[in-house]
Amino acid sequence: MVPAVVPEAVSAVGSAVGSAVGSGEGADRGRGVSGVSSPAALAALLDAHAYLAGEGLATACFLALKMGRPLFLEGEAGVGKTELAKTLAAVLGAPLIRLQCYEGLDAAQALYDWDFARQLLHLKAAEATGATGAAEAARLEGELYDRRFLIARPLLRALETRPAVLLVDEIDRADDEFEAFLLEVLSDFSISIPELGTVRAAEPPVVVVTSNRTRDVHDALKRRCLYHWLEHPPFEREVAILLRRLPACSEALAAQVAAAAGRLRSAGLVKPPGVAETLDWAGALLTLGARDHLDPGLAAATLGALLKYREDQQTVLANGLLRHA
């Protein structure tokens, strides 16, 4: 196997933004947000895309954009971490590139892979033309590691896409080794492909890293990010979210659903409902004809949209928690 090093073919001119990540120096390194002058202005843009961010989240998001730093979001599942990345991509008019983390994820699965099937076809096509001899063999080997045979995985796509929003979802599910590898990528926004050379982001992607805190993420990764803990929304905001996302929902029904969800979150359940589950529940109620009143019978019948553990459902029904809805 003869590596064909053609860095000019794949490398982009790096910007200084990457070097600022982790150093903490420099402000106003924003990308695609030149018209956004404050957290409130960003919150308004998110609001226009049906994402209602509190002041703390809007400020963290605004600073991450302006300073060119990854945004690390931690919080219970279903509080809107992933949705924020999706909405941010819509606000910036950039594609969302998602890397879903899981146990066993390695660098190759996140970066790139060679398309062996296409490489094999290329070899067979060359053989069919009668290419023989040492010189021809060397040329063919070089061609096999051309950029056209490279399959870009999420991290490489994010480096090559300008602009882009990179969502590294549920980093707490990945192994320590992958977390250490990600640390390097987020520091330099460049990777080295032995056969091709270095790929450096011409414009580093906007990065959102999420964690459900199933394990502690290393401080080294957090140091390179701006951090925000995302809480369940207060009652008033959850009502507003329901009304924004489900236009058919009445204010009375939204208020009763939000109140019920808030009550269940303090009931010591195995998995308290997040905003995503509340939306699902309200959607299920509307599907079954609920309009202005949260009927206890319908609430019990649709509990599976809100609670995903049998023990939680039994606790709620046994203690009559829905009767107060």
Automatic annotation (TrEMBL):
Give residue ranges for domain AAA+ ATPase.
67-245
Question: Per the database entry, which stretches of residues form a coiled coil?
Answer: none
Q: So which domain of life are we looking at? A: Bacteria
Q: Which GO terms describe its molecular function?
A: ATP binding; ATP hydrolysis activity
- Which SMART domains does the protein's record reference? AAA (SM00382)
Pfam families recorded for this chain? AAA_5
Query: What's the protein name?
Result: MoxR-like ATPase
UniProt organism field: Sphaerisporangium siamense
